[in-house]
Write a structure and sequence with these properties.
- This protein has a domain of 194 residues.
- It is built from 9 helices and 8 strands.
- The longest helix has 23 residues.
- The protein is globular and about 55 Å long.
């Protein structure tokens, strides 16, 4: 490794350590928590009981006889997808519950812990997803999530999700809307967290698009309407916005899950961590 690269890594590590120390001294509103790392968050999850991991793809976070997996693809299809994306298929686990449209209602037993990473933002109907999670979660059990922070990923220019949009989606058919597909296809930017933190967000989305781009996006939406899996984000959160939406859903009793803890996003990172509990 060159001296320049070493210096950059050392500087980045130093900034992160200072930021983490400063974050630990801050006072956070009820429900918000200091930034943490993915490794520390995962290490703090109680896996003594039964665990369901949603969407493990080729990197399951938990393994063992008490761990089950849910995905939209079976193991063979996940391996093919991994190969197509230039990734190793070797760690794609056998999938216990397969639903090609992501319907958790096929799961026929309850779990003490349910975990998902970068899954919740893909759900066309967020309320239906959370209700389905609650139905297979034991009373007092926890739903733990890793969620992208829209400010520091390719969703930067897309407006943050509101409770009104979440409730409205629950009244529609459970497929990705044309809005979601078009936003993903036409209004996303680069995915470098560090660049976003430093204020370099890329070019703002253009107001005029090529006809071919719009046609391709509409074709994707038709696939979704026909029941096919379409890999786009439907929701765009910050930690504070996520907490606000979850509290509103719990207060109105649209979901029987309460947000216990939402961690702030760490400096130069692009994801935050959530703990919700079944009530």
């Amino acid at each position: 490794m060159s001296l320049v690269k070493r210096s950059r890594r050392l500087a980045l590590r130093t900034v992160k350590l200072v930021a983490r120390a400063a974050a630990g001294l801050r006072a956070y509103p009820d429900g918000m928590a200091p930034p943490t790392t993915r490794a520390d968050f995962l290490a703090g999850i109680d896996t003594a009981g039964s665990v369901l991991e949603i969407g493990p793809f080729d990197c399951p976070q938990f393994e063992g006889t008490n761990v089950s997996y849910f995905d939209v693809l079976d193991q063979n299809d996940l391996k093919q997808r991994a190969i197509a994306h230039g990734r190793s298929p070797d760690r794609c686990p056998p999938i216990d519950f397969v639903s090609y449209n992501g319907d958790l209602r096929i799961v026929d037993r309850k779990f003490h812990t349910i975990f998902s990473s970068h899954v919740i933002e893909h759900q066309p109907d967020l309320i239906a997803h959370l209700q389905a999670v609650r139905n297979i979660l034991a009373l007092g059990g926890q739903y733990l999530m890793i969620v992208p922070d829209k400010r520091f990923c390719f969703d930067h220019f897309i407006p943050e999700t509101t409770i009104a949009e979440v409730i409205d989606a629950a009244t529609q058919a459970r497929t990705h809307s044309a809005r979601s597909v078009l936003l993903h296809s036409l209004f996303t930017t680069h995915n470098s967290a560090i660049s976003h933190w430093l204020g370099f967000h890329g070019k703002k989305p253009r107001s005029n698009r090529e006809q071919s781009e719009i046609d391709a996006a509409m074709t994707e939406q038709k696939h979704s309407a026909d029941g096919e899996y379409v890999d786009v984000h439907a929701w765009y959160f910050t930690p504070e916005g996520f907490l606000d939406v979850m509290r509103a859903l719990a207060t109105t009793q649209l979901i029987r899950l309460i947000p216990v803890r939402v961690h702030q996003t760490a400096v130069f990172d692009q994801e935050f961590f959530v703990v919700m509990q079944a009530v």
